[in-house]
Amino acid sequence: MNSFPTVSDLQDSVVNDFCDLVTRILSTKDTFSVSLSGGSTPKRIYEMLADRDLPWSQIHFFWGDERNVPHDHDDSNAKMVSTALLDRISIPPANVHRVPVDVDNPASAAKAYETTLREHFAGQAFPAWDLNLLGMGDDAHTASLFPGTSAIDQTDRWYVENWVEKLDTFRYTLTAPAINSASQKWFMVSGENKRAALASVSSDQIAPSEYPSQLITNPKWYVTADAMPQA
């Protein structure tokens, strides 16, 4: 795991690595596809990326998970990314693939977004992201794959609605296979409150129903020192 003294150091590293990866990938093909994470740590990363001179017309943005709220709601991941990044850069609207939230019918919205993904990544068994950005909660969830929820066991679907009992709401999320199909998967973990979860995820006890972040294979970890498991 890559350990950083502060969350600012972590964010600086992710931004620099993101820009380097975009440059490298676009030297070999025409487009770069990234699945985004919600949360306060990624938000600052998106704000920093908005100040970088990147070939935005070649970058496609998707959402790894979303809340079941309208896009103009303060809890919306779409709103957060728009405010932090998309509203501040020049990018073709066709490059921005938001989850079509339907508060009253989340199953329909999830299927519609899966159709969007399958059309964009046509002919592929699962979406071939260049990068999947991930966070981890203090309960070891990632995207909206929460402990004990049905989406953890999905192996055929790409994107699903997921009932989260402890939140008393639906969330939208990529399934584990649709996350693992990324060429690169970067976990961004900060804060002392994540230490116990990260220790469980990185332990020899394999229990993805309890620690869903264990479902993600061969990720790259960006972790602040206060979140690192104790030796």
UniProtKB/TrEMBL annotation:
<dbReference type="GO" id="GO:0006098">
    <property type="term" value="P:pentose-phosphate shunt"/>
</dbReference>
<dbReference type="InterPro" id="IPR006148">
    <property type="entry name" value="Glc/Gal-6P_isomerase"/>
</dbReference>
<dbReference type="GO" id="GO:0005975">
    <property type="term" value="P:carbohydrate metabolic process"/>
</dbReference>
<dbReference type="InterPro" id="IPR037171">
    <property type="entry name" value="NagB/RpiA_transferase-like"/>
</dbReference>
<dbReference type="InterPro" id="IPR039104">
    <property type="entry name" value="6PGL"/>
</dbReference>
<keyword id="KW-0378">Hydrolase</keyword>
<comment type="similarity">
    <text>Belongs to the glucosamine/galactosamine-6-phosphate isomerase family. 6-phosphogluconolactonase subfamily.</text>
</comment>
<feature type="domain" description="Glucosamine/galactosamine-6-phosphate isomerase">
    <location>
        <begin position="7"/>
        <end position="217"/>
    </location>
</feature>
<dbReference type="Pfam" id="PF01182">
    <property type="entry name" value="Glucosamine_iso"/>
</dbReference>
<dbReference type="GO" id="GO:0017057">
    <property type="term" value="F:6-phosphogluconolactonase activity"/>
</dbReference>
<dbReference type="InterPro" id="IPR005900">
    <property type="entry name" value="6-phosphogluconolactonase_DevB"/>
</dbReference>
<comment type="pathway">
    <text>Carbohydrate degradation; pentose phosphate pathway; D-ribulose 5-phosphate from D-glucose 6-phosphate (oxidative stage): step 2/3.</text>
</comment>
<protein>
    <recommendedName>
        <fullName>6-phosphogluconolactonase</fullName>
        <ecNumber>3.1.1.31</ecNumber>
    </recommendedName>
</protein>
<comment type="function">
    <text>Hydrolysis of 6-phosphogluconolactone to 6-phosphogluconate.</text>
</comment>
